[in-house]
């Protein structure tokens, strides 16, 4: 017959070998009871796998009602992460942020409602459309608010030049989309000017510039840009013709491209960690130490901009971080266009002190 102390220790080991483990198991049991009984648990499909998740409302004041954000809560056994697609309430949602829990009893993530489905050709000769013809859901946001919205041809002619920011899952098919690719969005065509794979791991962020529709190459019925090849030539023939056209005909033995001056390398310089209430200057610098001539400055963010723009010119931009504590942890990109090339810098907002 076991003693009282032996029986007590045996019961305690069922709850955990030590106090920390027992406290964690109690918190885990609290979550399991909440997950079992809550009214916000619904059937859904996460990355093609049927499961259940808890969906919670998110304050719309944080993003000026630009999107219907939600929190999704799931057990640790569910495979989900930034970039995952969730089918719920007859709509498609995308995971944008994953919270790192200090007590890891469950997973909590922030999702946004995808507002567009983008399609492009993965093989122009056989007319294969991405994602087996269905296209990929994406979250598209207008970035024209942070720019003039116009470009200038010559000295006086102003042309419409809207900017769009696209967030889409980071997979091989989206990685294959190169700068210069034209995409059809809501009846208009845009060209990819910059692709950011760094700021939000799991997602690709494309910065798009408004382009002109071409009925000879764009398929408006399928909403796919560059569906047909111009001139009736296939892609391989076009590549051959381009390569032939670069061969000199004057017998000089050197191509015309060799006479062109290489573009100067440049980057945006400035701190990548910005404190609340502080002012910072970001400058476009060439590799030789001179300042680059910037034609456009843009601030890209999913929520309301955390910066006040104090001044900007063709070399630098000066911003002040808003003194609002909820901005801590947010990542924002400042983008510049110089020499017909776009680059950006990712900035993380940190505490004031």
Description:
The structure is a single chain. The strands form six sheets. Strands 1-2-3-6-5-4 form a six-stranded antiparallel barrel. The N and C termini lie far apart (62 Å). It has helices at 4-15, 19-37, 172-175, 235-245, and strands at residues 41-46, 49-57, 70-74, 85-88, 91-99, 107-113, 116-118, 121-123, 128-129, 136-142, 150-153, 157-160, 163-169, 182-185, 188-196, 203-211, 266-269, 273-275, 279-286, 294-300, 307-312, 316-321, 331-338, 341-350. Strand 4 (85-88) and strand 5 (91-99) form a beta hairpin. The radius of gyration is 26 Å and the shape is globular. The chain has 353 residues and is mainly beta. It contains four helices and 24 strands.
Comma- or semicolon-separated keywords:
mainly beta; 4 helices; 353 residues; 6-stranded antiparallel barrel
Quick structural summary:
This protein is mainly β. The protein has helices at 4-15, 19-37, 172-175, 235-245, and strands at residues 41-46, 49-57, 70-74, 85-88, 91-99, 107-113, 116-118, 121-123, 128-129, 136-142, 150-153, 157-160, 163-169, 182-185, 188-196, 203-211, 266-269, 273-275, 279-286, 294-300, 307-312, 316-321, 331-338, 341-350.
Q: What's the layout of helices and strands?
A:
Blueprint: H1 4-15, H2 19-37, E1 41-46, E2 49-57, E3 70-74, E4 85-88, E5 91-99, E6 107-113, E7 116-118, E8 121-123, E9 128-129, E10 136-142, E11 150-153, E12 157-160, E13 163-169, H3 172-175, E14 182-185, E15 188-196, E16 203-211, H4 235-245, E17 266-269, E18 273-275, E19 279-286, E20 294-300, E21 307-312, E22 316-321, E23 331-338, E24 341-350
Parallel strand pairs: 18-24
Antiparallel strand pairs: 1-2, 1-4, 2-3, 3-6, 4-5, 5-6, 7-10, 8-9, 10-13, 11-12, 13-16, 14-15, 15-16, 17-19, 19-22, 20-23, 21-22, 23-24
Biased composition (Polar residues): 244-255
Region (Disordered): 215-264
């Amino acid at each position: 017959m076991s003693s009282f102390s032996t029986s007590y220790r045996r019961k305690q080991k069922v709850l955990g070998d030590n106090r920390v483990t027992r406290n964690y198991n109690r918190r885990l049991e609290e979550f399991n009871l909440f997950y079992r009984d809550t009214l916000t648990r619904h059937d859904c499909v996460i990355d093609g796998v049927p499961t259940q998740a808890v969906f919670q409302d998110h304050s719309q004041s944080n993003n000026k009602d630009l999107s219907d954000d939600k929190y999704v809560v799931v057990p640790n056994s569910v495979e989900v992460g930034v970039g995952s697609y969730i089918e719920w309430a007859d709509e498609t949602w995308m995971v944008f942020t994953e919270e790192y829990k200090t007590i890891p009893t469950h997973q909590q993530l922030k999702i946004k409602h995808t507002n567009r489905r983008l399609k492009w050709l993965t093989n122009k000769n056989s007319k294969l459309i991405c994602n087996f013809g269905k296209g990929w859901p994406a979250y598209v946001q207008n970035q024209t608010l942070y720019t003039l919205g116009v470009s200038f041809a010559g000295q006086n002619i102003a042309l419409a030049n809207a900017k769009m920011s696209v967030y889409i899952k980071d997979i091989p098919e989206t990685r294959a989309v190169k700068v210069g690719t034209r995409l059809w969005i809501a009846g208009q065509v845009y060209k990819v000017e910059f692709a950011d794979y760094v700021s939000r791991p799991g997602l690709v962020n494309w910065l798009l510039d408004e382009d002109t529709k071409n009925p000879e190459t764009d398929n408006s019925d399928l909403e796919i840009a560059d569906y047909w090849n111009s001139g009736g030539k296939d892609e391989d023939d076009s590549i051959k013709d381009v390569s032939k056209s670069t061969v000199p005909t004057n017998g000089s033995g050197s191509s015309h491209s060799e006479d062109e001056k290489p573009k100067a390398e440049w980057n945006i310089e400035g701190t990548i960690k910005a404190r609340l209430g502080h002012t910072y200057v970001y400058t476009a610098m060439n590799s030789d130490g001179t300042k680059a001539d910037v034609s456009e400055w843009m601030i890209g963010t999913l929520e309301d901009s955390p910066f006040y723009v104090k001044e900007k010119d063709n070399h630098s931009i000066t911003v002040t971080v808003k003194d609002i504590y909820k901005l801590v942890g947010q990542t924002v990109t400042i983008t510049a266009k110089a020499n017909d090339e776009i680059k950006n810098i990712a900035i993380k907002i940190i505490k004031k002190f």
